[in-house]
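Design a sequence for this backbone.
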């Protein structure tokens, strides 16, 4: 017996759908199999597994944590490069991490950077 023999025919599936419709309309009890069938028909993608695995391995740093580190390093580089060194700091971070410069600019966002500027002296003390 092949796997194809186990699959229901179109007629069987139509008959099952008609019986299920009659159960639903009459308010009858649904079996576990009926519920699963309906769930698969109503929302097949809700049950589906993601097509690709998560891009970040378990236990690695979160995006927020990465962005926080980038902000701290960005401020350190700004101190090194001086007043007009923001572009150079972005380029140095991009080269250091192998990330596009545009991604670094988005990651070192204004709100997070503002918070890090406030906390920067405390972060530096913890580093030393």
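Sequence:
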């Amino acid at each position: 017996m092949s796997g194809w023999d186990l699959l229901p025919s179109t007629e069987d599936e139509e008959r099952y759908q008609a019986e299920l419709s009659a159960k639903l309309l009459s308010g009858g009890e649904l079996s576990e199999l009926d519920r699963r069938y309906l769930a698969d028909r109503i929302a097949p993608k809700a049950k589906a597994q993601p097509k690709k695995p998560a891009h970040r391995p378990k236990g690695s740093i979160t995006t927020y944590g990465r962005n926080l580190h980038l902000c701290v390093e960005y401020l350190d580089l700004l101190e090194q490069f001086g007043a007009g060194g923001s572009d150079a700091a972005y380029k140095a971070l991009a080269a250091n991490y192998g990330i596009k410069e545009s991604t670094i600019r988005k990651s070192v966002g204004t709100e997070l950077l503002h918070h890090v500027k406030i906390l920067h002296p405390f972060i530096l003390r913890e580093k030393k």
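DSSP finds eight helices and no strands in the chain.
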